[in-house]
Amino acid sequence: KLSDVQRLMIDLVIDNPQITLSEIAVRLSASVMNIRYQRVKMERLGIFFVHNGPTKKGVWKISYRDLQNNG
């Protein structure tokens, strides 16, 4: 089950795929380390933030994997 912060992270990336982790942290009044920690927790649930392109000009894509059917 996703936390409120995790849901907001997904909303921010959907609204602006070019957003940086720092910008996400500012918008959610959290630290960048906390945002990274939330990403790790989401990966354990099968929700991945995949960054495509250069560091400062790339875009985020959200990828889902059904962990229940993968062994």
Tell me about this structure.
The chain has helices at 4-15, 21-27, 32-44; strands spanning 47-52, 59-64. Helix 2 packs across helix 3 (32-44). Helices cover 45% and strands 17% of the residues. The chain has 71 residues and is an alpha+beta fold.
- Model regions low in confidence, pLDDT < 50 over at least 5 residues: none
What is the mean predicted local confidence, pLDDT?
Answer: 91
- Strand tally, please? 2
Q: Would you list the SSEs in sequence order as H and E?
A: HHHEE
By DSSP (H or I, 4+ residues per run), the number of helices equals: 3
Radius of gyration, rounded? 12 Å
Beta fraction of the residues? 15-25%
Structural class: alpha+beta
The shape, in one word, is: globular
The share of residues in helices is 40-55%
